[in-house]
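Here is an idea for our session: we take a single protein and study its fold together. To get us started, please write out a protein record for me. Start from the sequence, derive the backbone structure tokens from it, and show both lines together. Go ahead whenever you are ready, and we will take it from there:
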Amino acid sequence: MLHVDDTSHIDAVQQAITALLEQRHHIARGSADDFNLTSSKQLLDTFNQIISLVTALYASIASISLTVGGVGIMNIMIVSVTERTQEIGIRMSLGAQRQDIRNQFLIEAVTLSLVGGVIGMFVGLLTAFELTNRLGIPFIITPTSLLMPFAVSAVVGVIFGLYPAVRAARLDPIEALRSL
């Protein structure tokens, strides 16, 4: 085990040690070494690759979860539009514009999504707090970790709430009133 005085010298020292060991082990140039050298820099690179892989795995799981949640929100909003057809017809007959109806249902979808995001954020924070306490590592909350659930939830609400909102706005007021 060796310690280097400066991290910029790691590669040079590793090459010098390799040359010395090859000489002492009588290994010809180009032949396979019968020893292995590992630097902390290589270990750190390996660790970073593992962290990147785990992060990609978590991101894929999160995207699947968000898609499932978004489809759930869309289904709830479609049912809401179907059940409130009369209300939509009455509002349109009283002068509500299509964009007003669309915005109403879009706001409802985003609100529903944001409530789910807040619940998910608190569950995630509690889980992270418990995990860090058990592992003895510091629990750090960043502004990004608090703002990200709101941004993602709002985007999911808009994306998956847009179809039901547009569907509600396109209802013919006369047909909607006939369902009375």
In short: DSSP finds six helices and no strands in the chain.
